[in-house]
Amino acid sequence: MPIPALHIGDLAAKVPIIQGGMGIRVSLSKLASAVANEGAIGVIAGAMVGIHDPNVFKNPRKANSEALAQEIRKAKEMTNGILGVNIMVALSDFSELVKVSIKERIDIIFAGAGLPLDLPQYVSEEVKTKLVPIISSGRAAKLICKKWLAKFNYLPDAFVVEGPLAGGHLGFKPQQLDDPAFGLERLVPEVLEAVKPFEDAHGRKIPVVAAGGVYSGEDICKYLKLGAAGVQMGTRFVATHECDVDPAFKQAYIDSSQEDIGIIQSPVGMPGRALLNAFLHDVKAGKKFVFKCPYHCITPCDYTKAPYCISSALANAQKGRLKSGFAFAGGNAHRVKEIVSVKELIDSLKERFLSCCPA
Ligand SMILES: Cc1cc2nc3c(=O)[nH]c(=O)nc-3n(C[C@H](O)[C@H](O)[C@H](O)COP(=O)(O)O)c2cc1C
């Protein structure tokens, strides 16, 4: 079948792929604008985006807000395509980052790592920014629809449903991660079923986008056939020339084998999927890194008990200093064999989709 556009409100992405927001500073203006230029949706990650600002220790919230505004502006200079931001609900500066994104007229806000129950409070009639929660169950989709309607008379503009194979923080209990009952193939129909009564009652579509382990044109076909309106992909976009991380981070993906990809218990209080390296092995063995907490970035993080600072560890990895940090990665990262351009990646996904996906 021809590749369908992904419609989110009045936005239409010619290619039904969202590049997942990746922090810290993994997806910034360069990656997001390159993706948007190919007709897909490019996303800038908001988590501690200002971590390299010289004033970050004095005022991390201001540093993050300014850096996010700057990245949005830079991206807009490089594309007329569709751009989003990813803002984790667990961030202590969630509301500032949402406000700045709306002020900068971002097209879409993606909000996960917690339920964004109050997100519509930031938008008004004149604001065109779309609101898209990232969830991991039909129950969460239903709850958000109910609460948003009751409190704000607003329905989500779409949902991203993220399954257990995704990279980064995961919305599952560790024992659920390998349980087929929580597989993305099950979650997509579950979320579609949960949103259906709201679509029927309000006469509008709530597109559901599948994320977590989506790797090939065949995968895109599979999830569209299940009823998803598009897919969100993270890992594959890390392995692009345009991705905003140091080459050593990308090389770690290429060098990885399946055994190197594992689950960590993040100081954020959620499991996360990452490339296991010496740093994470030390943490697992009980090593505690002495650190001060200048950022107070994640609301549930108790830094007095955390063995290391996750923001510093991720920022080190982003700079290529993998001995003092680690890289988040999806379950399919070991399949990455080369770095390509965003255009090459999207062209090859489209091509494969067109040849393998029957109408
Ligand atoms: C390096 C990396 C960093 C990520 N950071 C974030 C983040 O800051 N916020 C978020 O909601 N998801 C984050 N994710 C999840 C992605 O947005 C995406 O949903 C997920 O990676 C999809 O699975 P895939 O990598 O198998 O394609 C991250 C993923 C990776 C690989």
TrEMBL record:
| GO terms for MF | nitronate monooxygenase activity
Residue span of the signal peptide, if any?
Answer: none
Q: Which UniProt keywords apply?
A: Flavoprotein, FMN, Monooxygenase, Oxidoreductase
Q: Which InterPro entries does the UniProt record give?
A: Aldolase_TIM (IPR013785), NMO (IPR004136)
The record's listing under SUPFAM superfamilies reads:
Inosine monophosphate dehydrogenase (IMPDH)
Presence of keyword Oxidoreductase: yes
One Pfam assignment: NMO
Protein name as annotated: Nitronate monooxygenase
State the organism named in the record. Answer: candidate division KSB3 bacterium
